[in-house]
Design goal:
It contains 4 helices and 15 strands. By secondary structure, the protein is of the alpha+beta class. Strand 8 and strand 9 form a beta hairpin. It starts with a strand and ends with a helix. Bound molecules: zinc ion (ZN). The site of zinc ion (ZN) has 5 residues, from loops.
């Protein structure tokens, strides 16, 4: 039999000794077990390190994700705040618009009430009466190209009729030649007179206003220029068509400032006072025609005066 035993002698300082007797196979097993244990421990340590590292990296990622989500959350909250502010602003704006609309509506209602309560109607009646008093008839032709105004649907109560009448009346008045064309004093009236040049009996179809050369001549009502040119006798002359059968004529001008076809508004300057044509000195000859017949312009001057005084 093989001697497979190992003797391990342990000696102490005092001189005593001890012998350990080990079997070779046992030793091999022990060594193997020991190596296995170390290998296991080493693998465990490596694996542990790896997992620890993995865990750290995951934790870091998690922290990053949390931070990003917090930032996003903050951002979303900010956006929400902004949206709420915007919403409040829009609501306020909406309320303001509603307020404005309501006050406008209230004003319109009030105006409508005033109209129907007869204010305009009374005024129209008053003006009509004044016009009849001085001999001017209130009748006009329908002219769709020179009209407009508020549309009110006609109903059975006659309210539409009142508004229509007032509206048409305002339009009529706007075009009617009223007031003076120049500031100067009247130097010759409408009617029979002695001709200032040949001193024979004659008919003066208009009014003469004294004026200085270059004084502004204003149109007495809105309309369209029918004629603007030089005419024998009248010199530089302008004729305005006011519609409804009315026309005005401005003669002896030094300068004409409008052309045929021009639209003119009441009080607009259309020319300058002069002494062109058959004239003895600087003045404006002014005529008013109704349905192609001359009428006394003084009536229309009077109306303007009456209207101004009854306001
Ligand atoms: Zn004259």
């Amino acid at each position: 039999m093989n001697s497979d035993k190992i003797h391990i002698i342990l000696t102490g300082e005092s001189g005593g000794s001890r012998t350990l007797l080990l079997d070779r196979r046992t030793l091999r097993r022990a060594t193997f077990s020991l190596i296995s244990l170390f290998a296991f421990l080493f693998a465990g340590t490596i694996s542990g390190c790896y997992h620890w590292q993995e865990k750290s990296s995951l934790e870091q990622k998690l922290a990053e994700v949390e931070q990003t989500s917090r930032m996003r959350q903050d951002q979303l909250l900010d956006e929400l705040c902004e949206s709420q502010k915007e919403l409040r602003r829009i609501r306020l704006q909406k309320l303001r618009v509603i307020d404005q609309y309501e006050s406008k509506l209230a004003r319109l209602r009030k105006e409508t009430e005033q109209i129907y309560s007869g204010d305009i109607h009374k005024r129209a009646k008053l003006i009509k009466a004044l016009m009849e008093e001085v001999g001017i008839r209130f009748d006009f032709e329908e002219d769709p190209s020179h009209s407009g105004g508020l549309y009110i649907e006609a109903n059975g109560n006659g309210e539409g009729t009142v508004m229509d009448e007032a509206d048409r009346f305002v339009c009529f008045l706007q075009k009617l030649p009223l007031g003076r064309p120049v500031k100067g004093k009247i130097s010759s009236l409408y009617g029979r007179r002695r001709d200032p040049l040949n001193h024979r009996k004659a008919f003066h179809a208009g009014l003469d206003f004294r004026g200085r050369r270059g004084d502004k001549v204003h149109v007495t009502g809105s309309g369209i220029v029918k004629r603007s040119g030089y005419q024998r006798g009248f010199g530089n002359c302008i004729v305005i068509d006011h519609g409804n059968g009315y026309e005005t004529l401005y003669a002896h001008l030094s300068k004409r400032l409008v052309h045929k076809g021009d639209r003119v508004a009441r009080d607009q300057v259309i020319g300058l006072v002069g002494s062109t044509g058959r004239s003895t000195g600087s003045h404006l000859h002014y005529e008013v025609h109704y349905r192609n017949k001359s009428v006394d312009p003084l009536k229309f001057l009077r109306i303007a005066k009456l209207l101004a005084s009854k306001k």
